[in-house]
Amino acid sequence: MQFFFEVLIGGLLSGVMYSLVALGFVLIYKASGVFNFAQGSLVFFAALTFVGLMEHGLTFGAALAVTLLVMILLGLLIEKFVLRPLVNQPQISLFMATIGLSFLIEGLAQLLWGANVRGLDIGIQDEPIGWIADATGVNVSKFDLSAAGIAAVLVTLLALLFSRTRIGRALRAVADDHQAALAVGIPLQQIWGIVWAVAGFVALVAGLLWGARNGVQFALTFVALKALPVLILGGFDSVPGAIVGGLIIGATEKLAEVYFGPYVGGGIEGWFPYVLALAFLLVRPEGLFGEKIIRRI
Amino acid sequence: MTAVRAIGDPVLRLDGVSLAFGGVKALNDISLDVREHEIRAIIGPNGAGKSSLLNVINGVYHPQQGTITFRGKPRHNMDTHETAALGIARTFQNIALFRGMSVLDNIMTGRNLKMKASVLEQAIWFGRARREELANRAKVEEVIDFLEIQHIRKTPVGRLPYGLQKRVELARALAAEPSLLLLDEPMAGMNVEEKQDMCRFVLDVNEQFGTTVVLIEHDMGVVMDISDRVVVLDYGRKIGDGTPDEVRSSKAVIDAYLGVPH
Ligand SMILES: Nc1ncnc2c1ncn2[C@@H]1O[C@H](COP(=O)(O)OP(=O)(O)OP(=O)(O)O)[C@@H](O)[C@H]1O
Ligand SMILES: [Mg+2]
Fold first, then answer.
1. Taking the C-alpha atoms of A12, A16, A17 and A20 in order, what is their torsion angle to the nearest 10 degrees?
2. A172 and B85 in contact by Cβ < 8 A?
3. What ipTM was assigned to the predicted interfaces of this complex?
4. Shortest Cα distance from A187 to chain B (angstroms)?
5. Any chain A CB within 8 A of the CB of B117?
6. Contact between B100 and A166 using a beta-carbon 8 Å cutoff
7. Secondary-structure class of domain A2-283 per CATH
8. Please, what are the averages of pLDDT over each run of 10 residues along chain A (297 residues)?
């Protein structure tokens, strides 16, 4: 039983980090109906820029500040030069644009900082927390817990921002009806700018946490692909969905790996979330919290 | 019936406004004015250009020719969120509510321009953001009381019957405390009772807040009852303009409505 909890907790903690990545997608999807394929590249870009700056002698804090500015700027530029000119184009065009964008950002990142794998130390060790182990016998990684804590704070903050403030309402309004949003005085472009800047910021935090755990390397872009089953589970337009979806994916993939893995030779973690999402898609296509699609005939 | 208000000087003036979509002339050399505190109706057969006229006034479309003057200042290709900032609010012919949101949240979006707290302040629910939210919420409650929709406050608008959705859309427009209110067929698709309610609300808004109203309506009874002056459009042209009685007896108007060939 102890072992079960250990796996479950480990899974939930990494799940929080999936939620964080998924949230980046949800924000943009909510505001502009675009599935931003480049979100993973943004995560990679952020992590690489941060390590690159540290290698050039910047302190942790300075590198963080500069990267934050760079990410916000990048988000604003993407909105202005990629999305805005494509307003009112079919969604598939926008989607294609973000695919192109992802290659551009990945290329740019490697051009600027080189392509070798780097370590990233954010000063928290990946070791069991002593007092928890002593008291309950369950090993909980200090790194996992801290990372999940940071991610949880950010996710909560964003969820609150979008559920009970003017900006949040404006964002949801824009997502529902452009014309009506304009008519109540919501400037579309400002909202999109904010959303992309926030997505850049979320990418930075996700990049640092995942980079610190797995090393800063190209594979970081695949972390974003893990967000896909999270989104299918939670619904593409739901902030709470991203949170719960991330937790479910994180927990079940670890449990599946440990308990079923041995029978099929392991490596379940890699594909289990997608199968789960697929099964879920058949039952509830709008996701756990997505807006229910009602078809009246 | 609407004699108590003192109708003032023109607040909005259109001069020679033309708007074309490809080959279709939706508006052809339209000139008209709207006076302070009046209820101005726009009537005309389907496709006459009524909605286009409202869309030009609130900046959805920019006319290819002509000028629009609002409160003495000529406007140059102003966008919708800018006209909103000038105090122009509207409802749409096809209800354009934010379907995923509750009635309350929909109406709160109407207060968007009155709220000033920065993104950062809002993110941490800082003093000003919080005070602002509560103050505006109070204002929204007034509108809700005024339109008698207290009971559906928390309902997602998508679940409401059509008539109530129209009322919520009016509430969202009123929440902005507009000086000029544009209503595109506010009573279309309503039953008699709902229509009466809506008429009463429009008259009350006009009387109690002094709001100038421009409204498009097909129901002649309603138009004749509540409007001070009426503009008649047909095929993008203005074919009549005056008091309800004047318009009713105009030959051009009668011809347009009875379908005399052009
Ligand atoms: N966005 C647009 N693109 C192309 N044509 C348009 C557009 N909007 C309106 N039109 C055309 O302009 C003309 C006037 O349309 P408008 O919607 O203003 O009429 P209306 O008087 O409001 O009619 P209804 O009573 O049916 O609402 C019509 O011929 C319509 O097809
Ligand atoms: Mg119309």
1. 160
2. no
3. 0.81
4. 6
5. yes
6. no
7. mainly alpha
8. 84 87 86 84 92 90 92 89 82 88 92 83 78 78 85 84 82 84 86 86 89 84 84 83 90 88 79 89 78 59
